[in-house]
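[SOLVED] Need 3D model of a two-part complex

Original post:
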Amino acid sequence: MTLKISAEHVEAIFAQSVAEYPDECCGVILGPEGSDFAQVLKPMVNSAHSPTFYEFDSKDLLSLYRELDDNSQEIVVVYHSHTETEAYPSRTDIAYASEPNAHYVLVSTRKEIAPEREFRSYRIIDGAVTEEPVEIIAAIGE
Amino acid sequence: MSAPIIEVRIPTILRPYTKNEKVVSAEATNLAELIAALDKSFVGLGDRLLENGELRRFINIYINDEDVRFMGSLAATLKAGDSVTILPAVAGGC
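Solution:
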């Protein structure tokens, strides 16, 4: 399955990863339930404030799920940044991946590939990682 | 007096244990009893919530709007009308 994502969201995620460097940044993109449409970008606070770990704040997590329920939305994308390593799911990323329907996006801003950047997407189900193509669309709805 | 019936919201990843039910219920007066009751009805669910008799680090459980870690964890008390939400942490790292 291909992840379709707007160029605007891609740029916003990279901007967040730079702004929060050296910590990992994280967030979600929400869409209507069952649509697989990455519509609304929602940056989240990394409560771990760490260059090697991210975790959504527990209160923010509950608010997020309440909001999803109220609006019949779901998490289409879960994203986070790797600051010094490849944009590939780590063992901890795989161990804690708990949304079988989500696209897990990883970006990397590691210096050795600058000015290039990495933006990659995966499915992580029962510990199995499958990379999937990313199609960057000009704008939402196209 | 019998224990109150508590409504529990189950996250997607644990719904295979509850025959895909999003909301289930069980009788309990505290969280430890609730998890034991859930595990009796939905075998294996308890093991996904507990590790060595403690709440798993990357499972968040809330009573109404409060994280149970601030309410005594497994000893957190439950009363009629309380609603419990289970959410796996969204976490990872390089």
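Edit: Residues 7-20 of chain A form the longest helix (14 residues).
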